[in-house]
Amino acid sequence: xxxxxxxAVAGLLTATLxxxxxxxxxxxxxxxxxxxxAGESSTDSSDMGSMDMSSVNxxxxxxxxxxxxxxxxxxxxxxxxxxxxxxxTGQAWLAQGGEQGGTTVSVELDGLEAGSTYMAHxxxxxxxxxxxxxxxxxxxxxxxxxxxEVHLALEADDEGVATATATNDQEVxxxxxSIVVHPTxxxxxxxxxxxx
Length: 196
Fold this sequence. Notes:
Elements: H1 3-18, E1 71-74, E2 76-77, E3 89-96, E4 103-110, E5 117-123, E6 151-155, E7 162-168, E8 178-183, E9 192-195
Antiparallel strand pairs: 1-3, 2-9, 3-4, 4-7, 5-6, 5-8, 8-9
């Protein structure tokens, strides 16, 4: 199994748990039976903080900001952000094609709650349209998990800083218009959004 395939499988459960935060639901019966043995229901969102969120990132990838033709967006705090989020700032970069191929997304955030975990997803609409709208999907109506979506996991250090890079073998073209970050302990709240 390739590293990317292993990353996708490892991130399946994590991604499934976070879908409710973007207004999407995943029925456990829609998952591959091998990923959800004996038809067990998926873990509820209260368990997200205890999961290994790094399973969806690609720590060996060249960050998008170091790739040619990367586009950059500045994060803005959203109306649905939890109280106390006003100081969160940062940037996101998206690069496609080139020597690395596919899509690379990198995120740097500051002003987060130290030790807290967050999940970011590419979204299909700009931040000003329904706070990014639905998740961007390579195959619309397909799986709501990687590799059909691009997800990044973030954990804030002692200074409230978090960085992550994720990759996908496919190019998003002009379909991914923003990236949205959610706190994993409040998955229904969209924290910040950056337009590409």
